[in-house]
Design a protein that fits this description.
Number of domains of chain B: 2
Distance between the termini of chain B: 72 Å
Shape of chain B: elongated
CATH class of chain A: Alpha Beta
Number of strands of chain B: 0
Strand content of chain B: under 5%
Helix content of chain B: over 70%
Number of helices of chain B: 4
Order of helices and strands of chain B: HHHH
Low-confidence stretches of chain A: 242-247
Number of helices of chain A: 9
Order of helices and strands of chain A: EHEHEHEHEHEHHEHH
CATH superfamily of chain A: Spore Coat Polysaccharide Biosynthesis Protein SpsA, Chain A
Largest sheet of chain A: 7 strands, mixed
Shape of chain A: globular
Oligomer: heterodimer
Chain lengths: ~250, ~130
């Protein structure tokens, strides 16, 4: 146990019914981030996600007995990171839309002083686009959260992010299971707790399976729920411990 | 007159039913309390209907039945909100338990693997596992 070279990194992969795309993601993670430990959080999948992870010897499996949603899966992952003394954690989607090659770039932001680094889809790299009301909703979220975090964030719903020990401690305690809580509200929580947030452009790949919903009706509902989620996130009282350790 | 008698009997029946449920611990006091209070209030109003007339003119409503309807709607609304709050609390508790179960299971599996073959995989013996107190 003496080859402790640098900070220990944990890659958290929340997975819900991702047996198709997961093997490739795990193989890429093993290739691109060999020094990091990989933890797949199986969020109550009804397919063979758990078996796929057990079959790969590179990844650990955190097997949730129920489906908790992304927020629940992530908090479980951060609790694991906290209890096992990891210095940094990166979360990567299991559907293959995040390229493990970019992990190094996202984590590099932590070296530059960020507590939380977000891999953003609209920041120049790649060609991910959204249109119509969904785009308005995303711009609205970006605008408001950029004001709160005091840094320009263009992709607030990105699930590709890295955080340091402070972020792990915060998210192990508070990672909302609400709608959009895993992305938008967690950013608000982080900035209200005083974490430094930075973003870095990453390339997004087409999802291995399934497409995001783009119909106008759904997008309008998304806008409404996003606005509500944001309003609640900004106005809700913070839990005490987040402030106390500002020595 | 028999209408009032029926109302008294029904509300007292409800109170008795709730007490039975409470005694067999199938409902907790914090949920049963409001129904017992409503049952007793209805019984009192049925026994002394003049009270209802007095209340109605006091609040400024013309027909006593309207006061009754609006009051019952408000009570039901608050009970529904209380139940939503309780369900949310339960969901949060379930979530925490599910996370703990999964974490414990992983710990057990890793301990078993470590005991089975002493080859250190992704190791668990990190330095600062007692975080959150700085």
């Amino acid at each position: 146990m003496e080859q402790d070279t640098g900070p220990r990194l944990l890659v958290i992969v929340p997975a819900w019914n991702e047996q198709e795309s997961l093997p490739r993601v795990l193989a890429e993670l093993a290739a691109e981030a060999p020094a990091a430990d990989v933890l797949v959080v199986n969020d109550g999948s009804t397919d063979d996600t758990a078996a796929v992870v057990r079959a790969s010897h590179h990844a650990m499996l955190l097997d949730l007995p129920l489906n908790l949603g992304v927020g629940g899966a992530m908090r479980a992952g951060y609790r694991f990171a906290l209890r096992n003394g990891y210095d940094r954690a990166v979360q990567v989607d299991a559907d293959g839309q995040h390229d493990p090659v970019d992990i190094a770039r996202v984590v590099a932001m932590l070296d530059e002083g960020a507590n939380l680094a977000v891999g953003a889809r609209f920041a120049g790299e790649g060609d991910y686009t959204a249109r119509g009301p969904r785009r308005w909703a995303m711009s609205m979220l970006s605008f408001v959260i950029s004001r709160i975090a005091k840094v320009r964030l263009t992709d607030t719903t990105s699930g590709f992010r890295a955080c340091d020990r402070r972020g792990i401690e915060l998210f192990a305690r508070e990672y909302p299971a609400e709608y959009l809580g895993d992305t938008v509200e967690s950013l608000v929580i982080a900035s209200r707790a005083g974490l430094t947030i930075r973003q870095v452009g990453v390339r997004m790949r087409v999802r291995s399976a399934g497409t995001p919903s783009q119909s106008p009706g759904r997008a309008a509902i998304f806008l409404g729920r996003a606005a509500l989620a944001l309003l609640i996130a900004v106005t809700r009282p913070m839990s005490a411990p987040a402030h106390k350790d500002a020595s | 007159m028999s209408g009032y008698g029926f109302a008294i009997a029904a509300s007292l029946g409800i109170v008795v039913f709730l007490v039975v449920l409470l005694r067999s611990r199938r409902v907790r006091e914090k949920y049963a309390f409001i129904w017992i209070a409503v049952g007793i209030a209805v019984a009192i109003l049925a026994a002394f209907p003049e009270l209802m007339l007095g209340l109605t003119s006091l609040v400024g409503i013309q027909t006593p039945s309207n006061l009754l309807f609006s009051a019952s709607l408000i009570v039901l609304l608050f009970v529904c909100i209380q139940l939503s709050v309780e369900v949310s609390g339960l969901e949060e508790e379930t979530r925490t338990l599910a996370e703990e179960v999964a974490l414990l299971r992983l710990d057990v599996e890793r301990a078993a693997a470590a005991a089975g073959n002493p080859q250190p995989g992704p190791d668990a013996s990190g330095p600062g596992s007692d975080a959150s107190n700085r």
